Amino acid sequence: MKNKLLKKLRVLLVEDEENLATLLKGAIGDNFYSFTVAKNGEEGLERFKGMRPDIVITDIMMPKLTGLEMAREIKEIDQNAAIIILSAFSETDKFLNAIDVGVVKYFIKPFDPDELLEYIISISEKIQSKNTLFYNGFYFLSLH
Fold first, then answer.
1. How far apart are CA 45 and CA 30, in angstroms?
2. How many other β-carbons are positioned within 10 Å of the β-carbon of residue 24?
3. Do the strands 138-141 and 132-135 form a parallel or antiparallel pair, or are they unpaired?
4. Looking at the DSSP assignment, which residues form a beta bridge with residue 108?
């Protein structure tokens, strides 16, 4: 059973490999309120500013702006942004840089899209509660 909270989440995938982006969108995209794809870090940052997604899934090595550079800029805009890294790099320095930026999870390619979806399900309640404001005894959803 899919988590109902997923249908409330907006996801931004930033991936320069078109085949992987298409595969991921097809495999897990329908589970979310929206699933937007950007093809490089610069486009990803612009889309983040425009849509304020709940989750950003990004590759590290991309043209124009790397995933880690983009993640740093996103964290300056929203320090609570949930950022997931997908990378072919398993080197310690890349991993440590991702931790320093505040990435919530690091998946090494190749990975199973179902594992990615399961991880998102596991953090969806926390993300949704971050987007809820409590005011005078009533709950209101923030509109970012």
1. 23
2. 22
3. antiparallel
4. 87
How far from the centroid of its chain's Cα atoms is residue 86's Cα? 10
The mean of the pLDDT values for the chain is 87
Least confident of 49-53, 80-84, 112-116, 126-130: 126-130
pLDDT-derived band of residue 131, with 50, 70 and 90 as boundaries? low
- The C-alpha atoms of residue 40 and residue 140 are separated, in whole angstroms, by 34
Residue 35's alpha-carbon distances to 28, 29, 127, 138, in angstroms, are 9, 5, 16, 29
Q: Which domains does the chain have, with CATH numbers?
A: 4-141 (3.40.50.2300)
pLDDT at 4: 84
- Cα→Cα distances 96→7, 51, 63, 76, 90, Å: 32, 28, 21, 19, 10
CB atoms within 10 A of CB 130: 15
The predicted model scores a pTM of: 0.86
DSSP line for 10-50 = EEEEE-S-HHHHHHHHHHHGGGSSEEEEESSHHHHHHHHHH
